[in-house]
Specification:
11 helices, D-cysteine desulfhydrase activity, six-stranded mixed beta sheet, pyridoxal phosphate, globular, Pyridoxal-phosphate dependent enzyme, ACCD_DCysDesulf, four-stranded parallel beta sheet, TrpB-like_PALP_sf
Length: about 325
């Protein structure tokens, strides 16, 4: 049995779907479920595995993972390269997967944390990732052909994973989430709510739902039109059953004002479900506000996706 099969056997799939009955204004007017993708795995949490799984399976098949046990990777080694910030849930999940499968990994991190590494970066170090810190100006070049060509010259046998794992292969993994929901409660639910940052998770959900269903994205960063463009690039022009709410970014990406942090703590205390202020906290904060505003049709059924990843709340 190969390492990938052993790793996949540790995952909880399908992830739990739980009825959610908060004592919030407007909550009794609708039926709410939480899709607990945070329960898939303690490290490869939530949508991170969904976005990576088809890519990783294909990479393992093509590469054969031929590097001998115990040998040190070189710049010519078959490897993966990806990008993220100092608290990246994507890099954390990818780092763990690569460590478990003995895949050399180079991560390009926005900002210099060499003198004060975050808990996420310390984990990557422990998992033998090669870490390169770049300034914000350089990081902005990550999707340009010139910058990617430079990386390919340095690492000729590398495969590059876009920031957040957002690539076309990710959509197939995310669409499995919708299939799991359908298998458990049928297709008579009306709305799926999910955070939006790099776009692939929302696009994967939109591509899989039926025409009578609507997908609501909660933008976790400032970027009206920009976030829409990230989602739309993965979709056909026939997908019109989605929109993004831009009122709940709470100041911008990774911004955690006191009221949001307090909400996350109170939510955990009341429900036993851990959330953090970067992604999941903003989704449930938005849900509470929107329920109070009567934003959903009475009698409708909502599914809120807990996309996991708690790096943003680690001390």
């Amino acid at each position: 049995m190969n390492k990938l099969t052993l790793l996949e056997q540790t995952l909880v799939q399908p992830s739990p779907l739980e009825l959610f009955t908060p004592n919030w204004p407007g909550a009794s007017d609708v039926t709410i479920y939480i899709k607990r993708d945070d329960e898939i795995h303690p490290v490869i949490s939530g949508n991170k595995w969904r976005k990576l799984k088809h890519f990783i399976r294909e990479f393992v098949d093509l590469s054969g993972l031929s590097r001998a046990e115990g040998s040190l990777p070189t710049e010519d080694s078959i490897r993966l390269i990806s990008f993220g910030g100092g608290f990246s849930n994507h890099l954390h999940a990818l780092g763990y997967v690569c460590y478990q499968l003995a895949i050399p990994l180079t991560v390009i991190i926005r900002g210099n944390y060499s003198s004060s590494p975050t808990p996420m970066i310390n984990d990557l170090i422990a998992w033998n990732a090669n870490i390169e810190y770049v300034d914000k100006a350089t990081y902005k070049l990550r999707d340009t052909s010139e910058y990617l060509d430079t990386l390919k010259r340095r690492y000729p046998n590398a495969k590059i994973v876009p920031e957040g794992g957002s690539q076309l292969q990710a959509l197939a993994g995310v669409s499995d989430l919708v299939t799991e929901i359908d298998n458990e409660i049928g297709t008579n639910y009306h709305t799926i709510i999910t955070p939006v940052a790099s776009g692939a998770t929302m696009a994967g959900i939109v591509s899989a739902v039926e025409k009578h269903q609507h997908v609501v994205g909660i933008g976790v960063l400032k970027g009206q039109d920009y976030l829409e463009s990230l989602v739309a690039k993965f979709l056909s022009k026939n997908n019109h059953n989605w929109h993004i709410e831009h009122e709940y970014h709470c100041g911008g990406y990774a911004k955690a004002p006191a009221y949001l942090t307090e909400f996350c703590h109170q939510f955990k205390s009341e429900t036993g479900i851990a959330i953090e202020p970067v992604y999941s906290g903003k989704v449930f904060f938005a849900l509470k506000k929107m329920l109070g505003q009567g934003a959903f049709v009475k009698g409708s059924t909502l599914v809120v996706v807990h996309t996991g990843g708690l790096q943003g709340s680690r001390p």
